[in-house]
Amino acid sequence: MLSPLLSVTAFAALVHGHGYISSPPMRMPGNATTAACGRSVVADIVRDKTSHVEGLPELAAKDAGYKAAQCNLWLCRGVQFGDNAANVQAYAPGQTVEIKVALTIPHAGSANVSIVDTKTNTIVGRPLLSWPSGYADERQFYGKTLPANQTDFNVTIPTTLGGKCATAGECVSCL
Ligand SMILES: *[C@@H]1O[C@H](CO)[C@@H](O)[C@H](O)[C@H]1NC(C)=O
Ligand SMILES: *[C@@H]1O[C@H](CO)[C@@H](O)[C@H](O)[C@H]1NC(C)=O
Ligand SMILES: *[C@@H]1O[C@H](CO)[C@@H](O)[C@H](O)[C@H]1NC(C)=O
Ligand SMILES: *[C@@H]1O[C@H](CO)[C@@H](O)[C@H](O)[C@H]1NC(C)=O
Q1: Quick one: which ligand is closest to 148's CA?
Q2: Ligand 3 binding pocket includes 149 (Cβ within 6 Å)
Q3: Does pLDDT of 57 surpass 70?
Q4: Which of 84, 94, 82 is nearest to 5 (CA)?
Q5: Fewer CB near the terminus (10 Å): N or C of the chain?
Q6: Structure confidence by residue, pLDDT tens digits, 121-153
Q7: Domain span at 166
Q8: Residues 38 and 20 grouped into a single domain
Q9: Between the CA of residue 116 and those of 20, 46, 47, 56, what are the distances in Å?
């Protein structure tokens, strides 16, 4: 059977807190992101790759280089595919992918790992993994560590993606 490869740039979970995906590699900003989002957003992400998206709109709005539609802050914090050609991950349907999350400041909440269609910024299919609550609970964190299955876990690439994700950059999973 011929199935398209899933090409994902920087897989990541959606977390309420500060963290980043350490594996597979996250999207990092470069010139394409600066051109779309301005220097302030890029500087913020470079300074702290765990920085959360909620603080970015205000920061971006003050930057003359910010082009809201092009930047699309709520998709991967505006970090552009153009800067991440070397970060594309190709997965086969049914493949197991190990994901490692570095959580620096946990806040209890829900989290999903999903594949996102970058054109529409919508989830493809259902989440690959879902924590309806109790993810990154700081009461389990301070002085200890989070349950290992929250920071190092496997997902399975779906076998049906409705013909999506065959082209690099078409799909992503990022904070
Ligand atoms: C990014 O832009 C800077 C300054 O505009 C330039 O010096 C540098 O070569 C560019 N980097 C890439 C990877 O294009
Ligand atoms: C996670 O996925 C579930 C099921 O699709 C959805 O109801 C929920 O809103 C999602 N949570 C987040 C944080 O996106
Ligand atoms: C994750 O690990 C904890 C123990 O650290 C366990 O209670 C929980 O059931 C595990 N969850 C899953 C989804 O495996
Ligand atoms: C994830 O899958 C890999 C290989 O399939 C396996 O070696 C590893 O133990 C799995 N990790 C977890 C947390 O289940």
Answers
A1: 3
A2: yes
A3: yes
A4: 94
A5: N
A6: 999 999 999 988 888 877 776 666 788 888 899
A7: 1-27+85-175
A8: no
A9: 17, 23, 26, 20
